[in-house]
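Name: Glucose-methanol-choline oxidoreductase N-terminal domain-containing protein
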Amino acid sequence: MYLAVEKGEEALKQNTKYKTYEPKDGEEFDFIICGGGAAGSLLASRLSENPKWKVLLLEAGGEPSITTEIPGLWPTLQRTQEDWNYMFEPEAKQCLGMNDGRCTTPRGKVLGGSTTINGMATLRGDPRDYEAWAKAGNTGWDYKSIFPYFKKFENLRAKEVLDLPESEKYHSTSGMLPIDTFHRGRLSSDVVQIYNNFAGGFKDLGLKF
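Structure predicted for Glucose-methanol-choline oxidoreductase N-terminal domain-containing protein:
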C-alpha cells in the first residue's frame, strides 16, 4: 500500500501545477475575494468569465500538498499547516473524551479551503441559520433567496438521487462543482464493515440511514 502511495505522490508531483500571481504595488482590481475555498474559488472563476473584470483571489494558506490529492489520507491533514488548528472551548457536556475536554474543529488553511481536508464531503447549510441571518437584517440571505445558488453551482452526478421524482426541484447537473455519492462497491471489505457499523448505530437509535 505504501509503495502505491509513494508512486502516486511522485506521479502527482509531475502533473499537478498551480499558477501563482504576484500583484504589483498599486495595482487595482474590480473584485477582491478573501478566501480560496470552494465558495471563493467558484466565485472568482465565475466573475473572471467577464474579460473586462480583473479579479484577485486571496488565500491565507499555501498550495495544497500532494497528500490532499489522495482522498483516503484526509485524516492526516488535520492539525497540520493546512489546518487553522481551531479548538472548541471546554464545556461540561461535550468533548468529554478529548484532552482537556476540547475537540478539534478542522478548517482548511490552504487553497481549496476546508474542502481540501474534509474527506470530499459536502452538505448544504441549515435553513434555520440563513433565516436567522435574514432576521438580523441581512436582506437576501434567507434560505429561499439563497437556495437557487446552491443549485446553480451544483453538478450532481449521483444516479440514485437524480432518479428520484423531485430531483430537479432540489438539484442541478449544470454547475461547476461535481458532486457524487459514496460508492460502497469501490471500497475494501474493512471500510465496508465500518460503514455498516456506522449505519447500524443510526438504526439502533431509530434514525433512518
